[in-house]
Design brief:
This protein is α/β, with parallel strands linked by helices. The chain has helices spanning about 1-15, 20-30, 35-50, 55-65, 75-90, 95-110, 115-130, 140-145, 150-155, 160-170, 190-200, 225-230, 235-245, 265-270, 285-300, 340-345, 345-365, 385-395, 425-430, and strands at about 180, 200-205, 210-215, 230-235, 255, 275-280, 305, 320-325, 365-375, 400, 420-425, 435-440. The strands form 2 sheets. Strands 5, 6, 7, 8, 9, 10, 11 and 12 form an 8-stranded mixed sheet that branches. It has a 4-stranded antiparallel sheet with strand order 2-3-1-4, sandwiched between helices.
Length: about 450
């Protein structure tokens, strides 16, 4: 009961107060120190799973309720949403438990008069969950089944086949795995794996990269000895691949112009054996503090955190390598931040593309002649990705460089020779991510 109630009120904060799901969830769990790791994981799954599947959940409720979702009291609606998520998506939860707990919560919060309504809707859905009808229009049906705004599905289907679009949506519907980047200045991947195992943390070392691991069964990774000793930092393999594609030589000068919270800067420093200098930049002082704290924990001396606006030209610093991990629509992170797909509109892509071009233009000045600029985003969007790369090379004297030799042996990509890769989540289990490598002419 307690877990469902906590999850319900986190969702209320998200929908009624506009709170970010990852922030309010973390704050709420921190307040409840009495919760076990299993309870924390259950609450997290209830919240994020409900968010990932919100449009479909509301669609299903509307099929079986005379009172439609847009007319329901917020508490009743979110109570139903949490229960319907369990009924439709959590096979190990008995239907009776999901229904009964929702009824009890309604009574507990002074909605006794609506407890019969809650019970009736949920029982009806449970009886008919395998025969729910969707529109015959394939695009509309895809948007409803996987809970995406229809405009985004249409946008993606201009870039990929319907089959790939469906695979992307299905992959994003799965809970994310926790990927970590090994601090190779301190130990090897295998050594970290053994240390995790000693702490009782489950590890999967079958990964794309030789400095990555996936870990499981840990409620608060920051409390682990390995974390406190600075042996790793949390980072998706797609982001690690951006650093591998950059491949900075030892003792190089590198600028990471949109670096917060610092993961790629740390990985760059580790790649170079903590030699050279990594200028890790952001526009907010509190994020600079996070970068400095992270570098200190990891024992990285080559990181220099600076407050700088990436969209403004810096004529003083000349770098061998520049990383532009640009602000973007973030559609590659839907598994981890499911509210993204509901909070963005197409006009955001237009605005972000313009900002990305401004940052690329400013960053071009910083790259030494013959130097490398790597451009990356955590989204799936031609306008923010390959269209920006083509524009940038045409306008600022850069040439795309074949990235085939930097890719893992078990990764194939038909655009690698053209200098870029678009990672889709169903291909290798990573975030949706874009990476391009370009060399400055001269």
């Amino acid at each position: 009961m307690k877990e469902r109630e906590i999850a319900l009120f986190v969702l209320m904060d998200i929908f009624e107060e506009g709170a970010y799901n990852n922030i309010i969830l973390r704050k709420t769990l921190n307040k409840h120190s009495e919760l076990t790791s299993v309870q924390r994981a259950f609450i997290t799954e209830l919240v994020n799973g409900t968010l990932r599947n919100l449009i479909n959940i509301d669609y299903v409720i509307d099929q079986f309720s005379k009172t439609k979702t847009d007319k329901m009291k917020p508490f009743i609606l979110n109570n139903l949403r949490v229960a319907v998520y369990q009924i439709l998506y959590m096979d190990k939860i008995p239907v009776s438990a999901a229904c009964n707990e929702a009824v009890i919560l309604a009574k507990k919060r002074s909605f006794s008069s609506l407890s019969g309504f809650v019970n009736g809707v949920l029982r009806n859905i449970a009886r008919n969950k395998d025969s729910i009808e969707y529109p015959k229009d394939k695009t509309k049906a895809l948007a409803l089944k996987y809970s995406y705004p229809e405009w985004l599905i249409k946008y993606w289907l201009k870039e990929m086949s319907f089959e790939d679009g469906e695979k992307v949506c299905a992959s994003f519907a799965q809970p994310p795995r926790l990927s970590v980047c090994v601090n190779t200045t301190k130990l090897s991947k295998n050594e970290l794996k053994n240390k995790f195992s000693d702490e009782g943390i489950a590890v999967d070392s079958d990964t794309l990269l030789d400095n990555s691991l996936y870990i499981y069964r840990t409620s608060n990774i920051a409390e682990s000895r390995c974390y406190k000793e600075g042996l790793f930092h949390i980072m998706d393999e797609s982001s690690m691949l951006a650093v591998k594609i950059m491949a900075p030589l030892k003792n190089s000068v590198v600028a990471d112009v949109c670096s917060a919270p610092g993961g790629k800067s740390f990985a760059i420093a580790e790649y170079m054996g903590d030699s050279g200098k990594v200028y890790s930049r952001d526009i907010y002082s509190h994020k600079i503090e996070l970068i400095e704290e992270g570098a200190k924990r990891l024992g990285l001396k080559s990181i220099k955190a600076e407050i700088k606006d990436a969209a403004e030209i810096d004529n003083e610093l000349k770098a061998d390598y520049v990383l532009v991990d640009a602000p973007c629509s973030g559609f590659g992170l839907v598994r981890k931040k499911p509210d993204i797909k509901y909070n963005k509109v197409y006009e955001d892509i237009e605005e972000l593309s313009a900002l990305q071009r401004k940052i690329l233009a400013a960053s071009s000045v910083m790259v030494k002649e013959g130097g490398i600029l790597v451009y990356s985003t955590c989204t799936i969007s031609h306008k923010e990705n390959i269209e920006n790369v083509k524009w940038f090379c045409r306008e600022y004297g850069f040439t795309p460089e074949d990235i085939s030799k930097y890719l893992p042996e078990n990764m194939s990509c038909d655009t690698a020779e053209k200098g870029y890769i678009q990672l889709l989540p169903h291909e290798y289990g990573t975030d949706g991510f874009f990476i391009a490598r370009m060399r400055k002419n001269g």
